[in-house]
Amino acid sequence: MPTSRLKEYLDTNHIRYVTITHSLAYTAGGIAQITHIPGKLIAKTVMVVVDGLLAMAVVPGPMHVDLRAMKAALGAEEIEIASERQFAHVFPDCELGAMPPFGNLYNLPVYVDEELTKDKEIAFNAGTHRELIRLEYEDFGRLVAPQVLRIGTRTPAELHAESRRAS
After folding, report:
1. Residue 15: phi, psi to the nearest 5?
2. pLDDT of 144-160, one tens digit each?
3. Whole-structure pTM value
């Protein structure tokens, strides 16, 4: 079972968490809708290659990774979204695209957008497209020790749609 490694790690560290089983969903927006969890609490893991090394960029569900901002924040020479071929072998216990943001379990650095630190809780894929784990951000931060940066952005179309809904 893909989530056993993560759950064992959380249990060993005496972390309180909730596992939410849901119908099949592949996007953060779909997961938020199905589970009735605000999209901003869904931590979306995006695999990136920073100066030739694989890493995790984690942003709130409604956001995208801003590669330019991340490159500048890290002082990197080169950064790009990783192809599935580049990272699939690193996560033998996870469904492709459902990796939890626990890079420490896979010897990968984790970069988290600062927006995720502003809420008490986060939720994220637990290794499958049918299971989510919800826990306190403070516990996540303590276990993973991610580097917190401003790496998330919304597209102009998304910002426009958001402002129209607010009006």
Report:
1. -95, 135
2. 999 999 999 976 666 66
3. 0.88
For 33, the 3-state DSSP assignment is helix
Domain CATH code at residue 156: 3.90.960.10
Residue type, 46: V
User: DSSP H helical segments within 36-166, as ranges?
Assistant: 67-74, 84-87, 137-144, 156-166
DSSP assignment, residue 42?
B
The tokens for 143 are: 């276990």
Rounded Cα distance between 83 and 93, Å, is: 18
Q: Write out the residue range of the structural domain in which residue 84 sits.
A: 4-166
Count of H-run helices and E-run strands, the chain: 6, 10
Say which residues have a Cβ less than 8 Å from residue 97's Cβ, sequence separation at least 6: 26, 84, 125, 129
Q: How far is CA 141 from the centre of its chain?
A: 13
Reference 48, options 30, 74, 28, 25; nearest CA is: 74
Please write the tens of the pLDDT for every residue from 29-48. 767 767 767 778 889 999 99
Task: Give the residues across from 123 on adjacent strands.
Answer: 42, 134
Number of domains in the chain: 1
